[in-house]
């Protein structure tokens, strides 16, 4: 029995080797269905190659909307020259009327000159005081300053109440607040803070300077006395005042001094850059020095003389 088992064991490897040899020698037979699939695919590719390729349909040309019409040469129309507005004739202002020394020419309602009137002595021959005019002008300009510019010092800047870091042990310089001047967002050291520009000048010096400024205009023949300023309507137009000034003459920058405030005339004259309206009480020294011609109502002469009198209380 033992010998039979040994022979069976030896025969099994030999049978396995013979089976593997037959499997390699004779390949497995594929089914007919699987073999038919590649043949069909090959037939399709051949049919596609043999059949002529169909041309793609041509794209239709779509007309774009015409943005410009080009006419033919025979249809071109001659261009007409553009009509330019004709410039308005420039009005040449004539020279101002003249008057004898110490007098001023009188301007009537229509802007023409009709005689002359004597000016008060306080305006024509004031007391000459050197340097008063300059001091009074500087004081007036300084008092007109608002002095609104201001900065915040370290006490007014918000924040900075806590100490940035401890006093010792960090290796950095000791700091007590983040609002110190050398810190970003800190306070300003010597910035403007509520400065006042007011200057006090005695009343006699102020009136003497005012009289000297008026006397300079009177000596140059730049003081004109206006009888009355009347217009057709209650609400005069700026054009009407401008035309009246042209009829008066080459006034340049002018100031009209009226006895009382007139809202209608003031509203119409507000659009004129070189024309101002004042009363004897609101006329300032800067207005007199800035103006080239003084137009004074006859009823306002006494008020100007009172302001120019050095002995008057004001």
What sort of overall outline do the alpha carbons produce when their principal axes are compared?
Answer: flat
Strand order of the largest sheet: 2-1-3-6-4-5
Helix content: 25-40%
Low-confidence stretches: none
Order of helices and strands: HHEEHHHEHEHEHEH
Approximately how much beta-strand content do the residues carry?
Answer: 5-15%
Fold-level CATH name of the domain at 103-146 and 202-308: Ribosomal Protein L4, Chain: A
* CATH superfamily descriptor of the domain at 103-146 and 202-308: Ribosomal protein L4/L1
Q: Quote the average pLDDT.
A: 82
Straight-line distance between termini: 160 Å
Count of helical regions? 9
Largest sheet: 6 strands, mixed
The number of distinct β-strands equals 6
CATH architecture of the domain at 103-146 and 202-308: 3-Layer(aba) Sandwich
Which structural traits does this protein have?
about 325 residues, Ribosomal Protein L4, Chain: A, flat, 9 helices, six-stranded mixed beta sheet
Characterization of the model:
By secondary structure, this protein is α/β, with parallel strands linked by helices. It has a domain at about 105-145 and about 200-310: 3-Layer(aba) Sandwich (Ribosomal Protein L4, Chain: A), CATH 3.40.1370. The protein contains nine helices and six strands, in the order H-H-E-E-H-H-H-E-H-E-H-E-H-E-H. A six-stranded mixed β-sheet has the order 2-1-3-6-4-5. A hairpin with a 5-residue loop joins strand 1 and strand 2. Helix 4 crosses helix 5 (about 205-220) and helix 6 (about 240-250) packs across helix 7. The longest helix is centred in the N-terminal third of the chain and has 24 residues, at about 1-25. The termini are far apart.
